[in-house]
Amino acid sequence: MAKFLDTTGISYHLQQLINQSQRELTLISPYLKINERMRQSLEDKDRMKIDIRIIYGKSELQPDQINWLKTLISVRTSFCDNLHAKCYMNEKEAIVTSMNLYEFSQVNNHEMGIYVEKDEDPQLFDAIYNETRRLIRISDEVRLSVEKIIEHEPKAKEKKSEIKSADEEKGFCIRCMKDIKLNPSAPYCVDCYKNWKKYENPIYQESFCHFCGKDNNSTMNKPSCYDCYKRYK
Question: What is residue 205's predicted lDDT score, i.e. its pLDDT?
């Protein structure tokens, strides 16, 4: 029989669910910002070489999260468009909940969820498992990488102090910061667009805001920094 969980119960059972996984682990959450304790548990499971799948649905992965995920050999990360579900399961247990895999939610939000054990309710467990498999099938596996921007820093610092001039049609390539025509639908220069086109990943994180040229984790989907988004929306 399913067990009701409050915020504290979700956090506890989620940590235990990860720690007790032996063969497979699936974490589905629109938002990802994994706390240090959970990182340590996932690193341990990665060393055990179990099958770990992480499905997320928002593009705002922070560079530290991306760089950490890149170190995990057994983890496959996928993006699922329009994802709103939050579900965490291993081969024996499942949690369906309102709580994102986001440390702020675990500490500050009022959350609810249900906890299901395969041995206690195999029919419900199988239904949850089948839906997680479906979400994995319709998700796009993401090649996580962050470009080093150290070679861009001198130029980037010069641009940081700039504000939009009278030439409102001027924009910047979000990868190399080359001057291009302002067009949020085409935020790359010709050469960088050719490279991006090889994979066509709309959430691949680049280095600069298309509008102002400041350092920013821009993507094809969201090429502007927050300040420019507010100013030009």
Answer: 87
144-164: burial string, b at 16+ Cβ within 10 Å, e else: bebeeeeebeeebeebeeeee
DSSP secondary structure code for residue 135 in this structure = H
3-class secondary structure, 9: helix
Q: Which residue has the tokens 């500050």?
A: 108
Phi and psi angles of residue 213, each rounded to the nearest 5 degrees, phi first: 80, 5
- Write out pLDDT tens, residues 212-232: 888 888 888 888 988 888 776
Tell me if 41 sits within 8 A of 69, measured CB to CB.
Answer: no
| Whole-structure pTM value | 0.62
Residues 115 and 95: beta-carbon distance below 8 Å: yes
**CA–CA separation, 222 and 204 (whole Å):** 10
